[in-house]
Amino acid sequence: MIYSEKVMEHFAAPHNVGEIENADGIGEVGNEKCGDIMKMYLKINAGIIEDVKFKTFGCGAAIATSSIATDMIKGKSIEEALKLSNKAVVEALEGLPPAKIHCSVLAEEAVKTAIADYYRRQGIDPEPIVGKIESHCHGDCHP
Questions:
Q1: pLDDT of residue 136
Q2: In whole angstroms, what is the distance from residue 125 CA to residue 12 CA?
Q3: pTM above threshold 0.85
Q4: Which residue, among 23, 3, 14, has the nearest Cα to 97 in the 3D structure?
Q5: Is 96 exposed, middle or buried (CB count within 10 Å of its CB: 0-12, 13-18, 19+)?
Q6: Residue 43 belongs to what H/E stretch?
């Protein structure tokens, strides 16, 4: 499998690793069967994502997609962060092998799940804003 230089960069020295104490929103996606689990923490102030951290258990592509996704939403409004797509994550990493595209989907889902958690904590139903979040990993992610 050949990875882009950008993927290798984010895998070797991932950005925004860790957790945020008293996070405003936490999203966890993936499962053990999959082998990739992403947990994302958001600090939100006045609708802006002031800080974002992640903890990912998984392959190099999972770590790289988590790292770049956090870079892409940090300092952005919730509305902008909700527009983050797995396609944008793949493009930012200058491509991913087909067998690893699911990692970019998990990164998108982790962001949306964390934002949904933020709204739930505010007493707001997140579904009309975030949409329905379904995990795409059913144990068939890794051939």
A1: 58
A2: 38
A3: yes
A4: 3
A5: buried
A6: strand 36-45
CA–CA distance, 71 with 77 (Å, rounded to integer): 13
Q: Could you list the active site residues? A: 34, 103
In angstroms, the CA 128 to CA 31 distance is 26
pLDDT tens, residue by residue, 131-143: 987 765 544 444 3
Sequence-ordered alpha helix ranges (H) in 1-143: 5-12, 60-73, 78-82, 86-92, 101-121, 127-130
Sorted by where each starts, the structural domains of the chain and their CATH numbers stand as 5-122 (3.90.1010.10)
Q: How far apart are CA 81 and CA 74, in angstroms?
A: 8
Rounded CA gap, 102 and 31, in Å?
A: 13
Three-class secondary structure of residue 112 per DSSP:
helix
